[in-house]
Amino acid sequence: MKKSDVPVKILKMKPARKVIIDLLHLGLKVSRIHAYGEDDCTEALQRLNVISEKLGRKISFTAYLATCWASTIYNHKIMHAYRRRNKIVLFEDVDVACVVERDIVDKKVPTSYIIREAQNKNVVHISDEIQEAKQSKSETAATSTKKLKQSKASLITRLPGFIRRFILKHMTKNPWLKKEIFGTVGLSSIGMFTMGSGSAIPVTVHSSTFIVGGIAKKPWVVGNEIKIRDIITGTISMDHDLVDGGPAARAIAELRNKIRECHGLNAIEKELGIQYD
Length: 277
Known about the structure:
Elements: H1 15-27, E1 32-40, H2 42-55, H3 61-75, E2 82-84, E3 87-89, E4 96-104, E5 107-115, H4 123-134, H5 146-157, H6 161-171, H7 175-182, E6 185-188, E7 208-222, E8 225-239, H8 245-260, H9 265-272
Parallel strand pairs: 4-6, 6-7
Antiparallel strand pairs: 1-8, 2-3, 4-5, 7-8
């Protein structure tokens, strides 16, 4: 059979996809440790639904996890440190890089978005910010300084592969430039689009990345009773050159507590006049 006789559809690779491939190649060179776990998010989901009804718009669970993650990183800054030669750079602000889906030419296109100073924002602010980012029609990475970042990203995607990889390699060696372009930590909610539990192991250029898995109803010990609860799974990936087991374990324990104990929701409910019996 001739090649021309085989039914096939050939698509042109998008420029942004080439950059993603280059970054994955760089991410594979990092010494990684991964922590997989699960916890109860039943109360958080229920209270977010009440807040959403009160506000008249959906407050996303991903935004809630972003607040928990940013607050945890702020208290454990080694988790978002970057190396510069033989020194460690600890940033004050937590810039959370996440992925949002935009409708571009009737297609869902995943693109990068960075939530700047996320430790200072509550779940409503972050949810609204992510929703606004989804309305953008750009296929390039967007941040709070959109136009400048989009122009830089667009320029990189047009370069030949060997030049593009050379630039990206040196970008990731400069902590300040790396923070500006990629943020300080990663958050991916890819598992939220799946059915049931389970998570993934990321390949990333960030020092720490939180991969959110699926949510499934499971039997869970509450007090001295076994109840059916909404259980979230997730994986935290860390650069072992920077983060040791002890600090990592303490940060993960804090994150789990924040998710379980509805971090930041009390203040929002008080402001909205929401009360529970």
